[in-house]
Specification:
Largest sheet: 5 strands, mixed
Order of helices and strands: EHEHEHEEEEHEEEEHEHE
CATH superfamily: CofE-like
Strand order of the largest sheet: 1-12-2-8-9
Structural class: alpha+beta
Number of helices: 6
Strand content: 15-25%
Mean pLDDT: 94
Number of strands: 13
Shape: globular
CATH class: Alpha Beta
Helix content: 10-25%
Distance between the termini: 38 Å
Radius of gyration: 19 Å
CATH architecture: 2-Layer Sandwich
Low-confidence stretches: none
């Protein structure tokens, strides 16, 4: 598997054209069939104008976080004080995913409908470059409970099966696997975000080539989402003092 970060021109908040930046950047490389194109949610949000100017906004950041969240915990009930714990789009994420880095004095929100955005990017690249099979992942950085540091996670995807199913197959000792399924989306997102970086690299796009065991298709696959009541971490998640957000 080969992961290549792609440099682009700066995309400037509150709104800029991602598709023209893609064409400009891809002119320096050749897209291969069965590639996965990874795009950070930040530049997708800038493309869609999902940005709030800090200076012109009369709304406090906490109100924006609560409005963007499905569920949230009040700030005074948790540490550190710099973040608010939220659930948005069925993802446990600090501060509804709102970002202030590389944002030019804006709050950058998540894309409004990231799966719709992923499909739009897919259709554009497929038509522009005449590809038959490809995949799209929209990513963000994410923390892991009880672990330092951040890594990539997939907010949305299109064009391929997000899961590799091992259930019913045998391990090396002949025991049938009952639960194991690989989350392809987040696995590839972690590799791509590591390559793209978190600072001033100016590489918000990555191309992943030669990925084995990918089922490319435009059909609707099983979702990665798990209901909070069925999640193995539900005892922790359900015991928290969640409040309903604006979403």
């Amino acid at each position: 598997m080969l992961v290549k970060a792609i440099k682009t021109r700066p995309l400037i908040p509150p709104k800029d054209d991602l598709l023209s930046a893609l064409v400009e950047s891809f002119s320096r490389c050749k897209l291969k069939e069965r590639s996965i194109i990874v795009v950070t949610s930040k530049v997708v949000s800038i493309w869609e104008g999902m940005c709030i100017n800090k200076d012109n906004s009369k709304i406090e950041k906490d109100k924006i976080i609560k409005n963007e969240a499905n569920l949230y915990i009040e700030r005074q009930a948790q540490l550190p004080e710099s973040v608010m714990l939220t659930i948005k789009d069925n993802i446990l994420i600090p501060s509804s995913g709102i970002d202030e880095s590389n944002a030019k004095e804006h709050y950058i929100l998540w894309p409004k409908k990231p799966f719709v955005s992923a499909k739009k990017i897919y259709n554009f690249i497929k038509k522009q470059y005449g590809l038959a099979e490809l995949g799209i992942i929209i990513t963000d950085s994410h923390t892991t409970p009880l672990r330092k540091g951040i890594m990539g996670i997939g907010l949305a995807y299109y064009g391929f099966n997000p899961l590799r199913d091992y259930r019913g197959k045998k391990d090396i000792f002949g025991r049938k696997l009952k639960m194991s399924r690989t989350n392809i989306v987040d696995s590839l997102a972690a590799a791509a975000v590591y390559e793209m970086g978190e600072g001033a690299e100016q590489t918000p796009i990555a191309i992943i080539e030669d990925v084995d065991n990918i089922e490319f298709s435009e059909k609707k696959f099983e979702s990665l989402r798990i209901d909070i009541n069925e999640d193995i971490y539900s005892p922790l998640l359900k015991s928290a003092k969640w409040r309903k957000g604006g979403k």
